[in-house]
Amino acid sequence: MGHTKKKNSSSLGVIIGVSTALIAIGGVASWWAFKSMEVKVVEPIDKPPHTVVEPSQTTKTVEVYWLDSNANDLELVATPITFEVEESATSEQILTTGLEMLLAGPGTGNYTTTIPQTTQLLNLSIKEDGIHLNLSKDFTTGGGSADMIARLGQIIYTSTTLDPHAGVWIEVEGQPLELLGGEGLMIGQPMTRQDFEENFALEATN
Question: Which of 25, 80, 139, 149 could form a disulfide with 135 if both were Cys (CB 3.0 to 4.6 A apart)?
Answer without folding.
Answer: 139
